[in-house]
Amino acid sequence: MPSEQRLAAVDLGSNSFRLEIGVVENQEFIRTDYIKEAVRQGGGLDENRDLTPEAMQAGWSCLARFGERLSGFKRNQVRAVATQTLREARNRDVFLAGAIKVLGFPIDVVSGREEARLIYTGVANKLPINGDKRLVMDIGGRSTELVLGHGLQSRKMESYRVGSLVWSQRYFPDGQLSRKRFQTAQVAAAAVLEGATNTYQHAHWDRAYGSAGTASAIGEILVQAGRSTGSIDQEGLDWLLEALVEAQQVERIKLAGLREDRRPILAGGLSVLRALFSLLQIDKLEIAQGGLRHGLICDMLGERDSTSDLRDTTVTRLASKFQVDAVHAQRVGEVAATLYRQLYPVPQNGQRAQWERTLRKLDWAAKLHEIGSHISHSDYHKHGAYILDNADAMGFSVDEMHRLGLLVLGHRGKLRKVEASLGEEGLRLQLAALRLAVILCHARRDPEIQHLVLRRDAAGMLQLRYPAAWALKYPQSAYLLHEESLAWSKTAWTLDCSQSDS
Fold first, then answer.
1. CA-CA distances (angstroms) from residue 423 to 51, 255, 381, 491, 493?
2. What are phi and psi of 228, to 5 degrees?
3. Do 134 and 199 have their domain in common?
4. Mean pLDDT in the chain?
5. Pairing of the two strands 28-37 and 17-25
6. I need a labelling partner for 90 at 20 to 30 A (CA). Which of 180, 223, 232, 414 fits?
């Protein structure tokens, strides 16, 4: 089978790491291999929210095995994402550096709402196409995602910091099971999830689905006990609670269908699920076949089949929400792209796809560079960077949003605030093109740039040359370019803006 017909998804969850591999036939993904390892990385966060050395090593060892299995795959055939544990971990960059090295592929840390979107996409693509309004939930190790959707389209997405692993550690730390502990855990979960009551109440959905993790484990236990044919109801949850209370200790739980890796976190997951049943008035929760990794596969199939990108829609939505001047943003984007093409002409060595992606990211930064203006004019670049660093943006990873935030933060003013990132040539050249475009468009009209030449030398230093006649015609622009040269002269990198000899 040709390699280009293979796809793989890697899910770095708080409980387990999962790898799914398959082939694409007639635009349908057919699974050929599935590996799951209970890494329990979510239990390896210390009191400072740092991953312990043991937790990092366990993750690296698992991903090294996944990396061996993915040998021969191309970069565009594999998508790997990490969720709540790495969203929380303060030292995630240390872990990710080693993880990417042993896996052999990039790993995106996704926001809670992006995780929810991917979950819904994976679930919806495994369900019949009908007019049902759906509630999809996924109780993971350190977070719970809730999504409302219709057909294949997710509508409302949210992520809450409550999960089976963290709740088991917090309310059943010694493995002792009692009715009082379950009641305390359920009340605590309900307090975290209470904000979901209005948005996700029963009036907004026809059928409820549980994806992966806790829902799948409890559903299988009820099936094996003869109390279900593939769904969960309140009667089944009550029966399971009684069975756990009767066991008294985690190690004494003996239930058909319960996997050994799920036993230590079953009590916490049950408490969260009971809280959701009560808050959202759920009568029946159907067990979904799809999940996060299937959503990743669906996204990759969409990318292979279309030039559209969900991130374009997200950027447009953000710009509209914060009332960005779309005409000016497009003007800045076009000028920035023109300048960047002078630094990097269209490559002829097979790197065109990467070149086009870089230009698109530069265009996104241009479209969002004034996103903070709705908050404050004087420091709008700082507010814009804050918005992007904290926005749940569909289609984007956390790191992608941070990079956009850096470009927005650095597009004006002193460079000291982004100097630590200027050593990365790709970002430095994007930032230079964006800053120059903002200067040239300062009058908020189309600038005359056909005679401007931007070049870089072998050492990575930049030069912008413009005719003397242009400087006489646009003295304010020439002055601002001179100031830009001074700004770059205070860094390890130069951007010399001056008149050409001719």
1. 27, 56, 21, 10, 9
2. -160, 160
3. yes
4. 92
5. antiparallel
6. 414
Residue that terminates a domain, selected from 74, 109, 144:
109
CA gap 146, 112 in Å, rounded = 10
Q: Is residue 139 part of a domain?
A: yes
Domain that holds residue 27: 3-109
How many H helices and E strands in the chain? 19, 14
> Reduced to 3 states, what is the DSSP secondary structure of residue 6?
strand
- Phi then psi for 383, rounded to 5 degrees? -65, -40
Domain total for the chain? 3
Sheet holding 6-12, edge to edge: 28-37, 17-25, 6-12, 78-82, 107-109
Rounded-to-integer distance, Cα 213 and Cα 58, Å:
20
- pLDDT tens for each residue of 41-92: 999 999 999 999 999 999 999 999 999 999 999 998 999 999 999 999 999 9
Question: Do residues 479 and 439 make contact, with C-beta atoms less than 8 angstroms apart?
Answer: no
**β-pairing verdict for 462-466 and 453-456:** antiparallel
Tell me how long the chain is: 502
- Of the three residues 245, 268, 294, the one that is the final residue of a domain is 294
- pLDDT at residue 187 tops 60: yes
Q: Which amino acid is at 446?
A: D
DSSP codes joined into one string, 186-245: HHHHHHHHTTHHHHTSGGG-SEEEEESHHHHHHHHHHHHTTS-SSEEEHHHHHHHHHHHH
Q: Which helix (H) or strand (E) holds 392?
A: none
pLDDT digits (tens, 9 = 90+) for 5-54: 899 999 999 999 999 999 988 777 889 999 999 999 999 999 999 999 99
**Measured between alpha carbons, how far is 123 from 287 in angstroms, rounded to an integer?**
10
Are 7 and 300 spatial neighbours (Cβ–Cβ below 8 Å)? yes
Using alpha carbons only, give the angle 59, 64, 68 rounded to the nearest 5 degrees.
Answer: 150
Position 230 pLDDT exceeds 90: no
Amino acid at 250: V
Which pair of structure tokens corresponds to residue 311? 């991130």
Strands (E), 357-460: 453-456
Dihedral sign computed on CA atoms, order 40, 46, 49, 52 = negative
Q: What's the rounded Cα separation, in Å, for the pair 333 and 437?
A: 8
Gap between the Cα atoms of 127 and 74, Å rounded: 30
The candidate with the shortest Cα–Cα distance to 361, out of 327, 326, 401, is 401
What six digits make up the tokens of 483? 């100031």
